[in-house]
Amino acid sequence: MKKTAIWMLFAGALLAAGCKTGSSSADLKLNDLEYFERQGVNVLVYSNTFSGGFNDEKNSGIEVIHHGVRTVQGGAVRLSNTPEQWDLVPNTLSREVKADDNAIEVALRYDDYDFDSRIVVTGKGPAVEIAVYLDKPVPKELEGDAGFNLEFLPAEYWGKTFLTDGRLNRFPRYTASETTARPNAEKVKQYRGYRTYDDRGTDQFVDALPLETGHNFTLAPDTPERMIKVSSDSDISLYDGRVLAQNGWFVLRSVLPAGQTGKVLSWTVEPNAIDGWIREPNIGFSQVGYQPVQPKVAVIELDKLDKVQSTASLVKIGEDGSEKTAFTGKVTEWGPYFKYNYVKFDFSEVKEPGIYYIKYGDTKTVNFLIDNSVYDKITDATSDVWIPIHMNHMTVNEGYRIWHGEPFKEGYLQAPANTNHFDLHSQGVIDTKYKALQLIPGLNVGGYFDAGDFDIETGSNIGVVQNLVTLWEVFKPQRDETFVDEDQRYVDLHRPDGIPDVLQFIEHGTLNLVAQAENIGHMAQTLSNSVLDNYHHLGDAAAITDGLHYDPRLKPYTKSADGKSSGTPDDMWAFTTRNPGLDMRAATMFAAASHALRGYNDKLADRALTQSKRLQKEAEELMAKMAQQPGRQGGGNRMMMGNNAATNLQLYVATGDKSYLDAFESQIWEGLERNANSSISTAMDAIPYMDQAYRDKLVPYVEKYKEYLDSFETENPYGVPIGLGNWAGSGSVVSFGTTASFAAKYFPEIISKDYAYKATNFLFGCHPYHNYSLVAAVGATRPKSVFYGNNRADFSFIPGNVAPGVLFRHPDHFENYDNWPFLWGQNEGTIGGNTSYLIFGSAFKDIVK
Ligand SMILES: [Ca+2]
Ligand SMILES: [Ca+2]
Ligand SMILES: [Ca+2]
User: Fold this and answer.
1) Measured between alpha carbons, how far is 66 from 813 in angstroms, rounded to an integer?
2) Rounded-to-10 torsion of CA 599, 600, 601, 606
3) What is the pLDDT of residues 237-256, one digit of tens each?
4) Are 757 and 766 in contact (CB under 8 A)?
5) Beta carbons within 10 angstroms of residue 301's beta carbon
6) What's the 210 CA to ligand 1 centre distance in angstroms?
7) Which of 135, 213, 376, 562 has the fewest Cβ atoms nearer than 10 Å?
8) pTM of the full predicted structure?
9) Residue 18 clears pLDDT 50, i.e. is over it
């Protein structure tokens, strides 16, 4: 009795204390990182702000990270039911954290409409209140359009149930919701006046109609980790944004009332939290496996509340399917890194080839191999599949499947003067012999699609040819799995044609770049879409344009009598504004390509060399002229050329002219003194062409570089550079791995192979968030299953792709969606990035073979 009474007294005191602060652990409270938190739920309020246009990719506003997954975002005053990527976004004028009120207030503004609003998010028990305040009423022209929207990730909600005021329903796997066509005059303008849609001459736009409307929504009551309740006195409608754009989300929305000021809207949003939830450990390891001799360290990502296990095990799967524990070892703590706690499990002493998996507590990984052969095929999918599929101006076939027909048969038109472009290009005054919208002949040949889009970015195509030439010069890969016929304009995958594929890739890239130099007179910035409504194309590249020359005298959507031209303004444009720096890069690349192509395609080698010499001379003259302009720093071309040891080295390799090598030598030491880490890669590239004394003189810089490599061990648990930008960092890991591989090749006494293995570990699964391979590589047990390739609408991938990977979201969250391909910053692959991976893979295989 007495005991119970004391307990009751104690409980009463706790209750009283609870009442005083008005909170418990079940409440959403602002933390030091300025977001609302309870275990299992983070509500972020403008930790990530909207930037608009190309950069608006559903990463901003009010966001919910629900049991570890960012499932809700886009909370903002928006101007349409289902905003697309190029719809207007509000500027965030201010963001104020009101710790005493457990609230965050943001001020939003649409400059185009002189429309200001404030959003106040307040933690109230297990929910947040989202309130919209207006000091002036909604502008007349936005009445009925301005509303508060909150977006839900389709891949996390489809197939799940929802209730609206008690009415039962289920989120659709695919969109089939109802729409209405409205006059274009009623459409709120899009970013910079662009238009995401082709109205086919109807002068109408399409607007989504709601799936449901009511006051109380319960989303996913069947799935505790996704269940969210949203309620309001105002009408809330649910829309399916995918009906307008495949990357659309489910949207809850309330239109703001007309003619009112003050607190015009209030929602209560309560994300369910699973009692006592602890995130499952993410055991990072290489999905491709390990060689017997290499270090084998799994990095285990743990919830900060998770208790660290003292040991982990390696289980061996026998040839007869039996399982036995092969090794049990200590788990060591690395410590906190952003949101999670990290521990490591070193099983390097297991060297016996076999099939294994890791067991940590109740968590098991998928299986992986320990064997000398595990890395043999890591570049095969990239070179046999990904790169040839990205060959522009060709039909690409694979077995029974056509990946794409021949794109852009009508060629490219001169971009008009003073044009800003949605993919971040611009045309200044026209500096060619062509008039605006005149056909520039000869450009529809060769070249590579940039990425998940279909433009030719000249800068990255130059880098690609340079990468491929380096690959050819250093490793001479003879692999022949691709049939390429430039006359037939036909590529067939997995069909050998007697010519090493890399040579054909160099030829294909060079064909377009030489055509630019010959027909434009210098390098274009880009060959890209002229209209936004075909820039976001998904599907066959040959269907982006109609293949007919655009004739403005014809009516849109009609053809000429001879069937050769049309009135549809869909032709691609060449953005030609001259950049002597780009011309100089092209000149260097042309020299290198000419060297590689000599003996295989002499005619193209000659054309490349001719353009190399001309562009180099003209670029130097232009840069000298620019240097003399008032306001410019003196030195001009000498400065720009003088700093470029890499260019001089490439020119020496291509031409054999010793003066380039002398220039290189006079520059490289200064570069190494200034920054050994950034110059060491170029310095090592010269080793094959220099004497032993040169190599020995590099030793102290390589020692410095080792300190730099080691610094990553303390910077993060994975020991490689991890990028925090809006394009995730696999590229820096590839570059880290490439330089580390060459250093291990030339200076094995200083740089061990272990650094290069860290890069493959990270790329193949030992990284934050999940443990899937970021490369759709041959050999990986569980590569990522969706990428932002041009087939992303099919929730698929193009084999061999390297994803940018784990994207950092402020203030402390890494993510990589593997059920939602549409965020380019984490899931796209580029021709530049993937050819860099080809070099890394080749250099890596060379040192570990
Ligand atoms: Ca592009
Ligand atoms: Ca071939
Ligand atoms: Ca056309």
Assistant:
1) 12
2) -30
3) 999 999 999 999 999 999 99
4) no
5) 25
6) 34
7) 562
8) 0.94
9) no
Q: Do 37 and 65 contact (CB within 8 A), yes or no?
A: no
CA of 463 from ligand 1 middle (Å) equals: 14
CA 116 from centroid of its chain's CA atoms: 32
**Please, which residues have CB within 8 angstroms of residue 645's CB and are 6 or more apart in sequence?**
664, 667, 668, 671, 679, 682, 683
Residue 111, token pair as written in the block: 């400059």
Asked whether 680 and 672 are in contact (CB, 8 A), the reply is yes
Residue 462's φ and ψ, nearest 5 degrees, are -60, -45
321-to-291, 334, 373, 455, 556 alpha-carbon distances in Å: 22, 35, 21, 49, 65
Element (H, E) at 484: strand 482-485
Spacing, Cα 445 to ligand 1 middle (Å): 18
Cα 110 to ligand 3 centroid, rounded to whole Å:
36
How many angstroms separate the Cα of 44 from the Cα of each of 37, 66, 116?
9, 11, 21
Candidates 499, 512, 421; CA nearest to 464 is 512
Q: Please tell me the number of the ligand nearest to residue 543's CA.
A: 3
Q: Distance of CA 3 to CAs 6, 7, 9, 16, Å?
A: 5, 6, 10, 20
The C-alpha atoms of residue 248 and residue 84 are separated, in whole angstroms, by 7
Contact between residue 475 and residue 842 where contact means Cβ atoms under 8 Å apart: yes
Pairing, β 91-98 against β 368-370 = unpaired
pLDDT in tens, 146-183: 999 999 999 999 999 999 999 999 999 999 999 999 99
CA of 606 to the centre of ligand 2 (A): 22
Distance from Cα 745 to the centre of ligand 1, integer Å: 35
CA of 577 to the centre of ligand 3 (A): 23
Q: How far apart are CA 181 and CA 158, in angstroms?
A: 26
- Reduced to 3 states (helix: H, G, I; strand: E, B; else coil), residue 738 is helix
Alpha-carbon torsion 758, 761, 762, 766, what sign?
A: negative
Interval 617-660: pLDDT, tens: 999 999 999 888 876 554 444 344 445 888 889 889 888 899 99
Give the single-character DSSP code of 732: H
CA gap 545, 562 in Å, rounded: 18
347/344 Cα distance (integer angstroms): 10
- Fill in the DSSP letter of residue 54: G
Ligand 1 centre from 453 Cα, in Å?
5
Rounded Cα distance, 321 and 791, in Å = 37
The encoded tokens of residue 81 equal: 């039911």
How are beta strands 572-575 and 204-208 bridged, if at all?
Answer: unpaired
Q: Judge whether residue 518 has pLDDT over 70.
A: yes
Angle between helices 730-746 and 831-848 (to 10 degrees): 30
pLDDT tens, position by position, 276-304: 999 999 999 999 999 999 999 999 999 99
Given a cut of 60, whether residue 14 has pLDDT beyond it is no
> How many residues are present in the chain?
849
Q: How many other CB atoms are found less than 10 A from the CB of residue 5?
A: 9
Residue 103 and residue 120 in contact, taking contact as beta carbons nearer than 8 Å:
yes
Token digits of residue 145: 């359009």
Provide the residue type at 804 as one letter: P
Closest CA to 470 of 662, 686, 661, 679: 686
Q: Among 761, 735, 714, 840, which Cα is nearest to 295's?
A: 761
SS (H, E, C) 399-444: CCEEEECCCCCCCEEECCCCEECCCCCEECCCCCCCCCCCEECCCC
The amino acid at 793: A
End-to-end CA separation in angstroms for the chain: 75
Judged by its nearest atom, the ligand closest to the C-alpha of residue 544 is 3
Q: How far is the CA of 565 from the centre of ligand 3 (A)?
A: 7
C-beta of residue 779 within 8 angstroms of C-beta of residue 374: yes
Which amino acid is residue 657, in one-letter code?
Answer: D
Could you give the 3-state DSSP secondary structure of residue 635?
coil
Q: How far is the CA of 535 from the centre of ligand 1 (A)?
A: 9
